Amino acid sequence: MQLRSHLASRGLTRCVAGVRVGLPARRRVLTHSHTSRCGLSQRSHCSGVPSASTCAKHFLRGSVRCNVASQPREAVATSDVSAKLGSSAEVIQLYRYPGISSTSAVTLLHKAQHKVSEVITSIDGELCYNVGLAAPLDPSEAEKMAWLLRETFEPQQLTAASIFDGSAPNQCVVEVGPRTNFSTAFSTNATSITRSVGLDKVTRLEPSRRYLLTSTRALTPEEKAAFASMVHDRMTEQVYEAPAASFKVDAVPAPVFTVPVMQQGRDALEAINEEMGLAFDEWDLDYYTKLFKDMGRDPTNVELFDIAQSNSEHSRHWFFKGELVIDGDKKPHNLMEIVTEPLNARPDNNSVVAFKDNSSAIRGFEVTPMLPRNPGGPSALAPQKRDWDLLLTAETHNFPCAVAPYPGAETGAGGRMRDTHATGTGSIMGAGTAGYCVGNLHLDGATLPHEDPDFVYPDNLAPPQQILIDASNGASDYGNKFGEPLVAGYTRTFGQRLPNGERREWLKPIMFSGGVGQIDHRHLEKADGEVGMLVVKIGGPAYRIGMGGGAASSVPSGSNKADLDFNAVQRGDAEMSNKLWRVVRSCVELGGDNPLVQIHDQGAGGNCNVVKEIIYPLGGEIDVRAVKVGDETMSVLEIWGAEYQENDCLLIKPESRGLLEAICERERCLMQVIGTIDGSGRVTLVDKLAEPGTPTPVDLNLDQVLGKMPNKTFTFNTATPQLQPLALPAGTSPQAALERVLRLPSVGSKRFLTTKVDRHVTGLVAQQQCVGPLQLPISDVAVFAQSHQDHTGLATSIGEQPLKGLLDPAAMARMSMGEALTNLCWAAATSLADVKASVNWMYAAKMKSEGAAMYEAACALRDAMIELECACDGGKDSLSMAAAAGGETVMAPGNLVVSAYVGCPDITKVVTPDLKLAAAGGVLLHVDLASVPGARRLGGSALAQAYNQIGDDCPDVQPGQLKAAWGAVQSLIDQGLVSAGHDISDGGIATTLLEMAFAGNCGISVDLPTPAAAASPELAPFAALFAEELGLVLEVSPDNAALASSLFNQAGVPCSIIGKVLPEQTVELHVGGEAVLGGNTAALRDVWEETSFALERLQAAEECVDEEQSGLKSRAAPKWTLPFTPSFTPADKMSSADKVRVAVIREEGSNGDREMAAAVYAAGMEPWDITMSDLIAGRAQLDSFRGIIFVGGFSYADVLDSAKGWAGTIRFNDKVLQQFQDFYNRPDTFSLGICNGCQLMALLGWVPATAAKEGGVAAQLQDLQQPRFVHNKSGRFESRWINVQIADDSPSLWLAGMGGSTIGVWAAHGEGQVLFPEPAVQAAVLDKKLAPIRYVDTQGTPTEAYPFNPNGSPLGIAALCSADGRHLAMMPHPERCFLTWQLPYYPQDIGLEPKGPAPWLKLFQNAREWAESHAAADSQEEF
């Protein structure tokens, strides 16, 4: 797998087939004729050229293998590389070529010609490694370093000098890379690798990207600067005018000083407020002036920064808790009281955590998840009984994503993940959701007609197109590396000048991140602190990043100085987040022995916020120098206030310290004891290195700055919106309007988001975004299982309708809640009363009348929830949603996002939108939920937006009818009477019906009634088709149509038959009996996909996007062949006391271990959780296992090439290397590598091992011959449900009895393309049948065509095995689909049972059967 996620988005990926645009022959010969790679690995998405901020991570990729058997370690480092590594330079540069793929070079060239100058004729790229050294490396160390940096089969491509001259008049070199004062996550992971192989002299390792531009004339300095700005992110990167000579920062730590409030009063605070960007308002300035005058002393700069962050609007939610005066009337309740009222109205509800922690939770089920018998150490895993509740959290990270979208979204996703696991005394991660609201995209060549070309965008913020691409890349990449599936979401764009003259647009975007999980019922409450308890930090070191983010997020964008906006930029490290989570999980899995008394995640405000939270109210003394720093020049203020991510603050008892230290050591996670609870009621920050006379940095009474603070008062006047009726251009036809509507990002396909994000890691996803034979992203609901052994789980959905709030805030709130429920209702739920929701509020709340509109929305939501008997149990707010642009302040549309969730008693009972009864003549029912029956109002609709309007009549819903409809749908699901269902929302019923046909790959014939109250006869068909009144469309069999419709009508909900499903791909839509819309299903689907594919071209290789787009029109349902009947493992094997033991081995960043353990256990074997740190420390030995499995994930975040760090850890640790070699040489052993593990097995040389056998064991190849798995042809991470074929004649023990199968399997990787450096090796692999699994097209034919083959592997090769059949390496993920409910699609006639086994279970059962028939050479011993 690979870490490279945003490099190619700026054109930097790897060379494909050695082709370069305009590449001189002198350099072309350096590339391998069969390869496609580029340097570092950054596994994720892009190969197009959307923006600068995703470039760095896409330039980085690579893949290398370690040949355990035969390659001498002293080999291949060239003398010049070794000599340079042995020099005394503080930072040395090594170069790796190529650094850009041919497809990316073409795309980048086109963009440069368009945006810089047409005189540019070619672009080439190379990667530069800037290696910081504490001392010169000796020859042995230099060889290790060179091996880590080079490509194994092309060692000569790592050079001591650049091959780019750039001295010719028509050539120049542009180099960009990380800011030298900003240590990147890449460097953190790279130096973790170097430490693991004994290279402790390496202090930092940063990649820069070098571009050689050739042009018809010399480029001007302005043109060079324009190109540089196009390929780097100014917030996190810089242009390198010369090679970096040092990573040392000249900055001298700023001193702690006092601010003269006693002498100058409020004036002193006003001055420091402006200088430091503290975001104090008038109330704050008065309060803190009085506070310190009453204390009789001046505050320190550290204290003021502390207060500004921890008491910012972002952190303290003053607005929600404040008093509101609207139109001169003081309201009786504040917003917090309003949103909590529905929950308080039903004290017997199922809520167990609400409005008081990082997440909310509801009552769950008793389950038997796979858990270690000895958490925190090497251990067997087995199902264990637990009582686990269900958890949800949701938040936004808007300001950071406006400034630097990629890292902003990374840290937004990471912060929400820590919210998920830091609930109670620790909780269990599950799955994520995501949403994006941005301004008009203005896509080159695909501009939508309603987008105003004259709108001005702020220079200090990223443009909307970049935000959408880079933020979604950042969030996706972070989740991919962490190992959290993303299973639901939404996207919306908007920018418009309203009738009153106001411009409304998401210049400050919404980056929404939600997540579901579980929590042990014993761990719901954080215990009270006690004097003597230890304050502990776990996670990554402190860096000078994210300074003042809490305050910066509390004011409109553009209010601060640009340098202060830069200081708020953050840095995500999903690898560290993964390690942090594993520490917390080990504590949680100790059950009653959980050592955590309290846990809080570190977010806005950094230490100054989280530490105060955990010591409140007793107080404590904190040693600032106990905090581990990654930059020794950080000041006390920076250590205390920086928002460096991937950190938790814990409270533990002193006697638990040893246990926690052992867990952290095993997971390689930093742990620091930074203070103790002392009972003083104060927070005292001490600096043991302070000069005499330096004031104490922080010495504050906690109640005065965190606890008992008076509320603020906010005053507003309501405003009546100026509205105009919708007026379409003369002659507009419904067909023309449909094409505009289908191209809107809020309506059209979200393919550009779903294919680049892992939607199935954990193996616990029962329903994700994509449905049907074509796997289109239109699912309404996401469903997550509690365990692999049970069928209970959680359903979640999202509702948001912001454009309707521009007309009627109250209706918008009801519609948002209604949309969440009409999405959620398709999963079997415990009850409507059990539905809870986290609501996120995004407004420019303190501007104009927005606060009054927000109050109106809150009251409407409260009343609707009370009538529905459901409730809100949490939420977040972002109340500065405005930005300055073009001489005006542009407010975003007010928005509330409703994230609903509920318990699922049966995760197999889920209805999806894809039509399934075409052959049987399925009947289509319409359930009308309009607040006025038959009303079809077009205000705030996609149709109105498509014509640059908002209209004047807002749709609405009556909660009572919504409640009745919920009950009817649930009854139909329970009885199995509904085959497909979809909600009516953006785009109206026309979009709903078309999406159902698109996903079912069939046709429809529908006749809708003419609206009785249409604004005009001309608008009547448009209203019937495009009005966004809430409703449902159901597909039922002809035999059940009358029963289903009567069920709704008897409940008082209008329901009628509107049409039927057709087997041919023909769409016929009538209104009042008259044909208004029609066409071919595939042709209309192409229009729906058009904008998404335009965005795809900015993220992936254009040739791949073209191939998928052109082929979609003729796509058919994939054919399966299953020559055997899957069956569960016999009971006697499951209960055996002498099971085959399998080591499930993971490294830093692995994330597929638990689903693998579940599959191994389901096959009747005993899985063990074994880390590489266990093997290195001697806590585990491989000689006690019959099988080992290398799991998927992102070892070391896949920097320096996928699985390279993992392979290096084995290769350069003698004892560990010997263990693996001995295991391989034992004829009674077997191994499996999946994805990252597959890449590792290639690096180790365990597959295909085509050399002559030695003592009955397949012998490995030399490094230069060894096949490798390199970057996907698309240049990005691919998550796909694909079809593969298993060979009849494979020697693999794993595939016995599966030959001839053509079945689906999950794939999720960025570097899965197998590359054979030597044609003779490929020939041997084919001759010996060592490529036993192939990617196939829908007809079952092995293929190289994209996307059926997601990586471009020759001949469709998806796996390699050894000649003796014991070792199998495969890129797809069988461990995520060994149960039928895990399969996102399968032909209904294949004979699988919803709660039964899936075909891939047999792969694991085969290993057990082989092991049982091959007696172990030695008895197994416990360790």
UniProtKB/TrEMBL annotation:
Domain Phosphoribosylformylglycinamidine synthase linker: 269-317
Catalytic activity: N(2)-formyl-N(1)-(5-phospho-beta-D-ribosyl)glycinamide + L-glutamine + ATP + H2O = 2-formamido-N(1)-(5-O-phospho-beta-D-ribosyl)acetamidine + L-glutamate + ADP + phosphate + H(+)
EC number, as in UniProt: 6.3.5.3
UniProt domain FGAR-AT PurM N-terminal-like: residue ranges: 749-901
GO cellular component, one term: cytoplasm
Domain Phosphoribosylformylglycinamidine synthase N-terminal: residue ranges: 127-243
Domain PurM-like C-terminal: 530-687, 924-1071
Xref: SMART domains: GATase_5
One protein family per Pfam: FGAR-AT_N
One GO biological process term: 'de novo' IMP biosynthetic process
GO molecular function: ATP binding; metal ion binding; phosphoribosylformylglycinamidine synthase activity
Ranges that cross the membrane: none
Highest taxon above the source species: Eukaryota
Keywords in alphabetical order: ATP-binding, Glutamine amidotransferase, Ligase, Magnesium, Metal-binding, Nucleotide-binding, Purine biosynthesis
Pathway field: Purine metabolism; IMP biosynthesis via de novo pathway; 5-amino-1-(5-phospho-D-ribosyl)imidazole from N(2)-formyl-N(1)-(5-phospho-D-ribosyl)glycinamide: step 1/2
Matches recorded under PANTHER family: PHOSPHORIBOSYLFORMYLGLYCINAMIDINE SYNTHASE
Xref: HAMAP family: PurL_1
Family: In the N-terminal section; belongs to the FGAMS family.
UniProt-recorded name of the protein: phosphoribosylformylglycinamidine synthase
